[in-house]
Design brief:
two-stranded antiparallel ribbon; 4 strands; extended; alpha+beta; two-stranded antiparallel sheet; 170 residues; 6 helices
């Protein structure tokens, strides 16, 4: 099998796409920083949650802060990198509210500092306009890749198995 497309989305999902990882981020962004709070609010098995927390700390998404020496206990806080994922959480929540909740009441509403309900919108940092699918043009930066996939290999001569060209003279 050929290598899959090089992709920052795939790289991010390798870390935060694991079951419960984004829910850990949800909780620590809500201020629930203790292991027992995370277990209760996420519903993850303790050993799985401990593994997720360890990976998120190792990746620099969370920091682990001691708050008790005896017994040793820790708080988990989002780092700057972890806080950069908060808009992803907000956008996922809004998408879930629109497309998965139907007519049922939303489980949470976020209020912005201006006093209004937050409705997340992705905007262009250069012009400030809202971003829509039809406004985007992808420019693959990895050599050998296009938006449709890997570039075809150059044809080879059946006789020499080298790129097509004049035959080589021994």
């Amino acid at each position: 099998m050929k290598d899959p497309r090089p992709c920052s989305i795939a790289n991010a999902l390798a870390l935060v796409g694991e079951k419960y990882s984004l829910l850990v981020l949800r909780e620590v962004c809500l201020g629930n920083e203790r292991f027992d709070q995370l277990v209760r609010n996420i519903g993850a098995p303790r050993d799985v949650l401990a593994t997720r927390l360890r990976r998120l700390v190792e990746a620099g998404v969370l920091e682990k802060v001691t708050y008790s020496e005896r017994p040793q206990r820790f708080l988990y806080r989002p780092t700057a990198a972890g806080l950069e994922l908060e808009p992803v959480l907000m956008t996922l929540m809004a998408w879930g509210d629109r497309h998965l909740r139907g007519d049922r009441e939303r489980p949470m509403v976020l209020e912005h500092a201006c006093g209004h309900e937050l409705v997340p919108v992705v905007t262009c940092s250069a012009c400030g306009d809202a971003v829509h699918h039809d406004d985007l043009t992808a420019h693959p930066q990895t050599p050998g890749w296009t938006t449709t996939g890997p570039m075809p290999a150059p044809p080879t001569s059946p006789r020499t198995h080298s790129p097509v060209g004049p035959p080589t003279v021994p």
